[in-house]
């Protein structure tokens, strides 16, 4: 009796998403989209409204004007958000990009901390959550001993 589904077709997408690590990867991807959006907002503020930040540009760790910082944040935000979307879609390359961009984001926010400390601390905390979610995903198959 035929079920209407060819015997050689398997639902691999469902099998891949049922593992325990998929939730962590999805969490990391969503957090990256949020992180990228936050970077883009900080970048737009830096580009269009320099007087918003607490200290002058000479008191930053890296002495550049806020327009330059704005463009750095905006470009980094777009890269992080695109990698986050790719991570939720299951792209393997996005895991490496996620860790690298989260690390770069934490360095940029560390340098930006004197301008807006509360914002930078929140961004660094999100960076660490992304790195944890992507690296420590709990894939049981990698723990198998032969």
Q: Which spans of ≥5 residues are poorly predicted at pLDDT below 50? A: 9-16, 140-146
Radius of gyration: 20 Å
Annotation, overall tally of beta strands: 0
Q: What form results from the Cα inertia axes?
A: elongated
Mean pLDDT: 76
C-alpha termini separation: 40 Å
The number of helical elements comes to 5
Structural class: mainly alpha
Report the β-strand fraction as a percent range: under 5%
| Assembly classification | single chain
Main β-sheet description: none
Give the % helix. Answer: 55-70%
Description:
With 146 residues, this protein is an all-alpha fold. The protein has one domain. The chain is built from 5 helices and no strands. It has helices at residues 12-17, 21-48, 66-88, 93-111, 117-135. Helix 2 runs antiparallel to helix 5. The radius of gyration is 20 Å and the shape is elongated.
Summarize, please:
The chain has 146 residues and is mostly helical.
Topology of helices and strands:
Layout: H1 12-17, H2 21-48, H3 66-88, H4 93-111, H5 117-135
Helix pairs in contact: 2-3, 2-5, 3-4, 4-5
């Amino acid at each position: 009796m035929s079920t209407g589904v060819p015997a050689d077709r398997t639902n691999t997408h469902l099998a891949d998403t049922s593992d325990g690590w998929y939730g962590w990867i999805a969490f990391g991807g969503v957090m990256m989209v949020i992180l990228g959006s936050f970077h883009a907002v900080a970048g737009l503020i830096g580009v269009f409204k320099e007087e918003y930040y607490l200290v002058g540009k000479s008191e930053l760790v890296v002495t550049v004007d806020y327009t330059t910082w704005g463009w750095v944040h905006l470009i980094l935000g777009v890269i992080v958000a695109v990698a986050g979307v790719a991570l939720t879609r299951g792209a393997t390359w996005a895991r490496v990009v996620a860790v690298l961009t989260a690390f770069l984001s934490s360095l940029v926010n560390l340098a930006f901390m004197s301008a807006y400390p509360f914002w930078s601390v929140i961004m660094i905390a999100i960076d660490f959550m992304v790195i944890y979610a992507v690296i420590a995903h709990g894939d049981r198959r990698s723990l198998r001993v032969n």
